[in-house]
Amino acid sequence: MAKQMNVLDFAARKSSPHKISMVTCYDFWSAQLLNRTEVDTLLVGDSLAMVMHGFDSTVHADVDLMALHVRAVSRGAPDKFIVGDMPFLSVRKGLAPAMDAVQALMQAGANAVKIEGETGQADLIAHIVESGVPVMGHLGLTPQAVHGFGGHRVQGREDAAAKALVDSARRLADAGCFAVVLECVPAVVARCITESTGIPTIGIGAGRHTDGQVLVLQDLLGMNPDFKPKFLRHYADGFTTVSEAVNRFHQDIQAGCFPSRQESYA
Ligand code: KIV
């Protein structure tokens, strides 16, 4: 198994043919599974509010919930670099609460934190980095701002908005971020950021010219056949695989052929 990545390995992947692969991971059993895969890094994303808890946005995740999931993932995936998402408003209430939230995620087992947005946050990000905590930025469609955006929509389509994203990425790099996620931005904008910023870019719905890609695990496994945004590729038909297995279990019970004699204690 490859050794756990660190921030120096991320830097080395900048403009390298060896791209960064990242998937979300929210719980112990999938962490154990992913620990045995080749994927580079795991993101305990605040998307867990939607995927694991059924909320309609990530606004509902808080620090305690994030720390609970980070703890489970770090127990299951000791060999992976784990990024924990700073949840909604956790970096907007002043320095001390923000640092308490960072401490909670790092002590839960994260190797880095991810922070959505840049505007008004660069100094705080620099402070977190200076405190020895790696920070991953996140620009474009930052889902915690979904209500401000008027829905989940591609960002940076107009020239001024694209330029603002390029400038924000540069300021995140200056603040010391070790990488930045670019979510739902035109491929040409992601390419421009990737070429003009010294830190690795990790795209989701940002085209192929980034230094890495991230997807939500359940999305790439095809667990919800009805969720198929343009940027998503289903690498499995998880919905069919799992429901067929559960149905076979149900049918075997009805037919009286589970458990068998070999599956019973004498
Ligand atoms: O929370 C999350 O899953 C994310 C990824 C989509 C990048 O932030």
Uncertain runs: none
**Helix/sheet category:** alpha/beta
Kindly report how far apart the N and C termini lie.
40 Å
Number of E strands? 8
| Percent helix | 40-55%
CATH topology of the largest domain, what is it called? TIM Barrel
CATH class of the largest domain: Alpha Beta
Q: Describe the main β-sheet briefly.
A: 8 strands, parallel, barrel
Report the C-alpha radius of gyration, rounded: 20 Å
Strand content: 5-15%
Topology:
Elements: H1 7-12, E1 20-24, H2 28-35, E2 41-44, H3 48-51, H4 63-76, E3 81-85, H5 95-108, E4 112-116, H6 122-130, E5 135-140, H7 146-149, H8 159-175, E6 179-183, H9 187-196, E7 201-204, E8 212-215, H10 217-220, H11 238-255
Parallel strand pairs: 1-2, 1-8, 2-3, 3-4, 4-5, 5-6, 6-7, 7-8
Helix pairs in contact: 2-4, 4-5, 6-8, 8-9
The structure holds 3-methyl-2-oxobutanoic acid.
Residues 24, 43, 45-47, 85, 181, 183, 204, 214, 216 line the site of 3-methyl-2-oxobutanoic acid (KIV).
